[in-house]
Design brief:
It is a single chain. This protein has 663 residues and is of the alpha+beta class. The chain is built from seven helices and 34 strands.
């Protein structure tokens, strides 16, 4: 509702409006005198409470009767599926009477059943209501009795608007058509143009069981003898100098057996054709030729004339697989140095990034504007946004910072603060230390200090667990932190190989551990290894799990991406070598059948990866688009990528310090 600091009382005409125009149920209202301003109490009427620009519509249940929620303690659900609690209970008639007598603004208060809130109407809205009750136009500046402007005359005019005479070409025979017809007639008369033969066609088939079948040819098919190759420059009587052998080559040819020689003669040079002697091996070569024709059998072989394109699998066209990102939309430019990690919140409104300049930035996704900058003591290697709670985890050196950004639904922001502020004292564990940071102005709430540099972090889908990877450590390379209970545990006593990345299964208690050449899958409930996938690459770098959990992709430093169908085999289902340099990051889209891979060749390849519910059908993998927007770097290219949670968009962070949004 619009509002202003000085609320002017609109003029009331006693002849046009009645005295009870403002009778909305209150007895304390006094009609102001002419020229007197309406007084609104400062404690009861606030401008910010009636501002529709900042009003947040939380209840997203749609157009349904609100009586269905009378017996419940909530009135609907917000955009994230969380229950919206009732702010007050509906009273009886006695409570309404007491509220009417005690509340001076009762006559101008309406109750919003959908949001469960009481709204105080300003004077502008009351004026509109009075206009509507009086069957008048709600706009105060509108004059319904303006003179009518007659733009078109109703009288029939003698002169028409368009009276162009018909052109001559519409009723005169065409001269050019006559010339063309005469040319065709002349060609037919001279025999240059013959009509098609419309006679009876002979059938191309015959009766197999008839008394007189088609005669068959009994003579064998003639197979011509293979021809000798034509003479070249080395057989000329006057060959070029480069074809003449040296003394060493001549001695080598003479000392070699006849069977092992590459040629049966040596090139020689003569001044003229008259000086050329008779060829001494002529009779021998003709005899050998006759033996070849007589003794060597010849057989007719059917040659397959195949189009190489027919051997390729038939794939759908990329335009039939839309939507997918195709062009650059927004550029996020504020980083200095490499951007190592990019992530987006669950609504897609904000993104978080970190890199070489040790500054954590939170951006507005639609405009590319920086909202928050937080300086950390070391290089930021990984950032992840919690999809359940209002939390961001950032790895800087050997420390993981957990902060509340303060953006999004205020209910989730308050819940995130309650979870993070429960830690009040320093908690020392075997492999890490928990430090409370209090209610910091930058949003930092907790930090976890480890013994080695943290390279990668990932959240569980329920938002309570955080897994971290430390590549420099062998005995304690993976840790799992419980954010609610402020505890940590080491799942492995000793890591098998150098751990590159860890991930949680989307809907099962499985834990994926990517090493240099293998992917090991552990059951967290049984605490045992379930499966071991063979990557078939030299050095794996990253991995991503399909939202359904049955497929997995792994990128490697040797420019190869492999697709695993875990229901099919422990070996890759497909191996794609599309990039020219090392692959740095891979990701799946949470809703669309898309996955992306970025590389040091400054390109991001979007691939259509459809996984069918039918177990008989294999996944369909079709590359559809190559995105290029980052500047070429001598060593690194695109270092991270992440899809938008609801739209077919992708964010990429590169070594040039820029972040691009492709739509």
């Amino acid at each position: 509702f619009a509002n202003s600091e000085n609320v002017e009382q609109f003029s009331m005409d006693s002849g046009s409006e009645s005295e009870d125009d403002f009778d909305f149920g209150g007895d304390d209202y006094r009609k102001p005198a002419p020229g007197e301003k309406a007084v609104v109490r400062a404690g009861d009427y606030n401008e910010e409470d009636c501002s529709s620009d900042e009003e947040e519509i939380r209840n997203r249940i749609g157009n349904i009767p609100m009586e269905w929620y009378d017996d419940y303690d909530h009135i609907g659900y917000d955009v994230h599926g969380t229950k919206v609690a009732k702010t007050r209970k509906e009273g009886d008639q006695l409570d309404k009477l007491l509220d009417r007598m005690d509340n001076p603004d009762f006559w101008r208060t309406v109750h919003n059943k959908r949001e469960g809130e009481d709204i105080i109407l300003p004077d502008e809205d009351l004026a509109i209501i009075n206009k509507l009750r009086s069957n008048k136009y709600p706009d105060l500046g509108y004059d319904p009795y303006e003179p009518y402007v007659d733009f078109f005359s109703y009288e029939k005019q003698l002169t028409p608007l368009v009276d162009t005479p018909e052109p001559k070409r519409r009723f005169v025979p065409s001269k050019w058509e006559h010339k063309k017809v005469m040319k065709i007639i002349r060609a037919i008369r001279n025999g240059w143009m013959k009509p098609k033969d419309t006679g009876p066609k002979k059938p191309s088939y015959y009766d197999l069981w008839s008394a007189t079948p088609e005669p068959q040819k009994h003579n064998p098919m003639h197979i011509p003898a293979p021809k000798l190759s034509l003479p070249g420059n080395e057989e000329s009587y006057n060959p070029p100098e480069e074809y003449l052998p040296t003394q060493e080559e001549r001695e080598q040819w003479e000392n070699t057996d006849e069977i092992d020689r590459t040629s049966n003669f040596l090139p020689q040079k003569y001044n003229c054709l008259r000086h050329v002697p008779a060829y001494p091996q002529l009779i021998n070569e003709k005899f050998d030729r006759c033996l070849d024709l007589y003794l060597c059998p010849r057989k007719m072989k059917m040659k397959l004339n195949m189009n190489p394109e027919d051997l390729l699998p038939k794939l759908p066209k990329p335009k039939d697989l839309k939507p997918f990102p195709t062009s650059k939309a927004v550029k996020f430019s504020d980083h200095e140095g490499h951007v190592y990690s990019v992530d987006v919140n669950k609504s897609g409104e904000f993104i978080v990034s970190g890199g070489e300049d040790k500054i954590l930035r939170i951006w507005e996704s639609s405009t590319g504007r920086v909202l928050t900058k937080i300086t950390l003591p070391d290089v930021i290697t990984s950032v992840k946004w919690n999809k359940v709670h209002s939390m961001i985890a950032a790895a800087s050196g050997n420390t993981v910072y957990i902060l509340n950004p303060g953006y999004g639904d205020r209910v989730h922001v308050e819940e995130g603060n309650k979870l993070l502020l429960n830690l009040t004292d320093i908690r020392e564990l075997e492999h890490c230390k928990w430090y409370p940071l209090g209610n910091d102005k930058d949003g930092l709430r907790t930090k976890i200090v480890h013994n080695f540099t943290v390279s990668n972090i990932t959240w569980h889908n329920n938002g309570s667990y955080l897994a971290i990877t430390m590549r420099d450590s062998t005995a304690c390379s993976v840790l799992i932190h419980n954010i609610i209970k402020h505890t940590s545990q080491k799942p492995f006593n000793k890591s098998k190989g150098q751990i590159q990345q860890v991930e949680f299964h989307p809907n099962k208690p499985f834990f994926f551990v990517l090493s240099q050449r293998y992917v090991r899958i552990y059951n967290l409930v049984k605490q045992a290894m379930v499966r071991k996938l063979i990557c078939s690459v030299k050095w794996a770098s990253c991995m991503a799990i399909h939202p359904k959990g049955d497929n997995l992709i792994v990128g490697s430093y040797d420019k190869t991406l492999v697709w695993f169908d875990m229901d099919l085999s422990v070996k890759p289902y497909k191996s794609l070598a599309q990039h020219k340099k090392a692959i740095r990051s891979v990701c799946f889209h949470p809703k669309y059948p898309l996955y992306a891979s970025c590389s040091d060749d400054s390109s991001t390849i979007i691939t259509h990866g459809m996984v069918y519910n039918d177990l008989v059908k294999n996944p369909l993998v079709v590359p559809v688009k190559v995105l290029r927007g980052h500047k070429d770097n001598a060593k690194y290219g695109v270092l991270s990528n992440i899809f938008h949670p609801t739209q077919p968009w992708i964010y990429t962070g590169g070594a040039d310090g820029d972040i691009w949004l492709f739509v």
